Amino acid sequence: AWTDYNNLDDLEVEAEKYLLFDRFKMNLENDEGVHDHMAEVPAKSSTSGIKKPLRLLFARTLEYFYHLSLERMCLSFGCKKGTAEWKKVVNEVMWILTVPAIWGDRAKQFMIDAASDAGMANGPSPDNITIALEPECASLACQEMLPKPAKQSASKVQRYMVVDCGGGTVDITVHDLDGHAKTISEVHKPTGGAWGGTYVDDAVKKLIERVIGEDVARQLADADWLETIRDGVENAKRSFNNDGSPVAITLSQVFMDAVGDAAGVGWKELCSRVEGVSYRKRGALLVSDSLFSACFEEVLERLTAHVQDLLRKIDHVECLLVVGGFADSPVLRQHMMDTFTTPRRRVAIPTSAGLAILKGALKYGQHPKTSIVARISKYTYGMEEAPAFVPGEHPESRKVVYDGKARCEGVFKKFVTAGSVVRVNTTVETIIHLASKSQGGAQVIIYRSKEENPQFIDNAEKLGLLRVPLPEASKDRRSFTLQMDVSGSTIHFQAICTDQSAPIDLKVNFQ
Questions:
Q1: How many CB atoms lie within 10 A of CB 237?
Q2: Cα–Cα nearest to 162, from 322, 358, 356, 352
Q3: Separation CA 118–CA 68 (nearest Å)
Q4: Where are the alpha helices (DSSP H) in 264-392?
């Protein structure tokens, strides 16, 4: 996108016609902030502050890949768009959306909604769109790389840590592989942070700013000039192996000319201001090993500290499986090997680490309900209830009277505990009592907390609202069963009425 944008014939004239958006995926990293589906993101290319809805950006991106994928599939099957055969192909496709495991419930539903906007959904409650967690996909793709159990070992269970190093985030989880059943269980909830490869890019940008000077960098601030040399920076990251040799960063002609005009001096003179940087012909900076290596330091320090902390907490980790696009960097690969390899633990990194998640997503899509047999709940989930008031146990400030009975309002009724093991396809049920027999619907607010035992909803976050459309009232119905499943990659709710045979699928309206 950056290349196409920079190649426009008249960039100044076309800047408002063609809008450029970058790194907007990072807006979903903070799940607590994903409240408004119409939240807007400013265009990188706009000088007049033009913004577009975040959901629209995701939908248009997915729509592009949706149509591209269909075109490729039609070519493979030899069918034309619009024909009966083409419609059959479209109806049979299961779309797998991979997301970081550290993303929360809102962000995952956001992706499903955006995919629906893109035309992928087969209905209002689509069953042809599946969320897959990226470390789980990597785990499925790279099982053959795990060390073989010792012959004398009675246990066939292998424990390993998946370290998914992407562009924006690093996503880490720990799995057990049962060699007999060929199943995977999560043994530690996903963790991680914003320590991906793009933060090395930011460090390189700061280095180049030292070369061109603060005044020139300030003049070019609105141009987001790093993007004009992104390919050069990316190639330098992937080729740099920290062996003492300098690395070349290729500069774009657009950037070179802009700096030359703003600085009023040549590139050789600019480079002479920073020890370890020199200019060579054909538009490239030659950066010393030590200077370029320093661009990786902060990211590697944070990643190392986090992994070491997890290894202190979790016993018997036999292998670190390192994947993701950033894991194609020789510096990261060697650092992980040198830092975490021990006589009892190895580090495994596939040759094309960036493709591991894609390959694993295909395996996950074939068996989404049996590939991963257990996960760790990230949160304690529950709802509000008002049990009978117990003097001495409940605070007087929460005492209310309903129908002549003293009750305690705002009590957190727990469904699932944070940190607990949840087996796949297991559900939790609770009975919801109705105010009257003729009630045609109900609303249930779902809460979540990072605490294991929140006593009141004040200690929890309001996650979303369930609207339960009850069927035609029955004279005997005074309640219904709410069923919750948090064992999958996304949470799922159903309502079950005793006088109805089919359960009612419910969608959380996240708040």
A1: 23
A2: 322
A3: 12
A4: 267-271, 289-313, 330-340, 356-366
User: Please, what sign has the CA dihedral across residues 399, 400, 402, 408?
Assistant: negative
Q: Could you give the CA distance from residue 280 to residue 406 in angstroms, rounded to a whole number?
A: 82
- Residue showing tokens 């008249």: 10
How many angstroms separate the first and last alpha carbons of the chain?
A: 33
For 267, the token pair is 């590139």
Tens-digit pLDDT profile for residues 452-508: 999 999 989 999 999 988 776 555 656 889 999 988 899 999 998 876 768 889 989
Q: pTM of the entire structure?
A: 0.86
CA distance 299 to 293: 11
**What distance lies between CA 183 and its chain's CA centroid?**
23
Distance CA 311, CA 320 (A): 10
What gap in Å lies between CA 225 and CA 220, rounded to an integer? 7
For residue range 233-285, list pLDDT tens digits in order. 888 888 898 888 899 998 888 788 888 888 888 888 999 989 999 988 777 88
Distance CA 505, CA 495 (A): 7
Point out the residues of the chain with pLDDT beneath 70.
Answer: 2-3, 5-16, 31-38, 44-48, 149-155, 221-228, 435-439, 472-478, 499, 501
> Which helix (H) or strand (E) covers residue 48, if one does?
none
Phi and psi at residue 385, in whole multiples of 5°?
A: -140, 165
Neighbours of 42 (CB within 10 A): 13
CA nearest neighbour of 509 among 491, 485, 483, 489: 491
What pLDDT, on a 0 to 100 scale, did the predictor assign at position 172?
95
Distance separating alpha carbons of residues 240 and 207, to the nearest angstrom: 16
Distance CA(483)–CA(503), nearest Å, equals 9
Write the DSSP string, 172-192. EEEEEEETTTTEEEEEEEEEE
Measured distance CA(165)–CA(108) in Å, rounded: 19
Give the position of tokens 């304690």. Answer: 380
The answer to whether 378 and 451 have CB atoms below 8 angstroms apart is no
Count of CB atoms situated within 10 Å of the CB of 170: 27
